[in-house]
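Collaborator request, handled under Task 6.
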Amino acid sequence: MVTAVRSAWREVPPYQVRRFAALALDEVPALAEGILHEIRREYPQLQLVPDEFGEPRALVGIRQSLEHFVEHMTAGLDRPHVHPQVFQEFGRGEGIQGRSLDALQAIYRLGVKLAWRRLAEIGQQVAIPAPAMYELAESGFEYLDGLVAESVRGYAEAAARQAGERLRLQRRLMEQLFASRGGRSRPGRTGPGAAGRVATGPFFTLAERAARIGWPLPERVAVAVLLRPAREAVAPAVASDVLLDMECERPRMVVPEPDAPGRRELLARAAAGWSGAIGPAVPLLDAAKSLRWAGSAVDLMERGLLPAGELLQCTEHTEALVLLPPEELIEDLTRRRLAPLTRCGPTHARRLAETLLAWLETRGGAPEVAARLGVHPQTVRYRLRQIRELWGTEVDDPDRRFELELVLRARRLRGELGQGGGS
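Structure tokens returned to the collaborator:
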């Protein structure tokens, strides 16, 4: 059996409560003015924003909170608190101004302390018992918690709205950045000072959009394309100057001044757990070029031709990016240049191809090629004689040698050739 908690306030005769409430309500206008005066003296930086009637919103809020608390007091302290909506506006205003709620909460506490001082005097005046006043004080602090909660709600709404607006502006900036020049460069428009000239040239809106989100236009950027490890994956914790668009199927990042000391290491840590690629550093208006290379690298990652699980640097995988994406061209050239191998069995053809590639890369004799392949020099001499028989004078033509090396390197990148040649 649960015993009801005894309420000292409920035992106060109703006429005393009504007398207390009447005196308190009479005091509200002057008390609100006095509280605002003390708050402004303690916090001179507090800005007074007028409402539609020209009255300070802070004064209206103080007056309403006092009136609502007195009404709550007369209805019974066990009733739910009612909080003026204006306190949501106060929190919303702090969020819009970019300030924290700490100062606002300190102001609330000061206001409650000043209000309680006067209410305690009125309580003594009408002979409210001390236990009942203690209970009223507890209710007052609970009411304060509610006011703070209203302000936090308004603050959170403003912060969410601002964050959403910033993300929207950031995406628009990135879209325009990737559309600038269409990925084509013009002589004389890159190099030092190019980013600054964006503001006075045909790309004024780019500089304007950057200014709206507080993003200083850099000289050079690199663009990264990411693969989501999971649909609900937490976004990379990148630095505030890195533009991040998580709305794409493949999230994208624009990294300013990517060659700055420590930038690569910080970016790798921020993207831990994500797969992706970051394109080469380019002048600001060539961001689309960096995006294109990063996208190509991610395509290869999805096909298993580049390693996943980290943020790759495109500049460290140049060979794969140059040889693998133009598949139709490489495949056609492969069919024509490696046609002689169709006369051999699959295993022997692969060994001859590996030997030919090692020979083209080393430009050496049988011992050098044998060392590269891990086979006996006599085996290499035998294969080289077969290669000469299959290709004839083509292996002496510089252009044909280049094309052969190109298609063989492409096959090795696809995993069709190994480094060793067997025995």
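The cover message to the collaborator said: "DSSP finds 15 helices and six strands in the chain. The first strand starts at residue 220 and ends at 227. Please let us know whether this matches your experimental observations."
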